[in-house]
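job 3f2a | input accepted
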Amino acid sequence: MPLSQQHLHDIEQRLRDRRAALAAELRQETRDEDGLLRLPDHRGEGDRSVGFEMEAVDLAQSLRDADELQRIDAALQRLGDGSYGTCADCGESIGDARLRAEPTALRCAACQQRFEHLHPPG
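job 3f2a | predicted structure (122 res):
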């Protein structure tokens, strides 16, 4: 069953709100007051190994946020071209409940499960 226009509008607004929050968070994490790239620096926080670990966590968080930002942009593009809500693998409807839970979903639940089985996280 196709998604209603109201549901599509609600999803689009959720995606745009989340995108704005992520972009602001990434700017805050990676830019200084002048807008220049700032790398995390925890060297003055005691043990050197702890500083490196904290920098690794900061980098991992930024990479996770950037990945989510890309998934949101792809979902917004699908909304724009009319392919949103259609499974990229089987072409069937992704399903309302799945899209409510994961608005950036690219696959229906069955295809996503198959994809994860064939491509386990590294």
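job 3f2a | The mean pLDDT is 85.
job 3f2a | closed
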